Amino acid sequence: MTTNYETMYILRPDLGEEQVEQAITKYQNLLRDQGAEDMQIQNRGKRRLAYEIKKHRDGIYIQLNYSAPATAIAPFERAMRLSEEVIRYLTVKQEIGEEKPPKEEKEKPTKVVATTTATA
Question: What domain count does the chain have?
Answer without folding.
Answer: 1
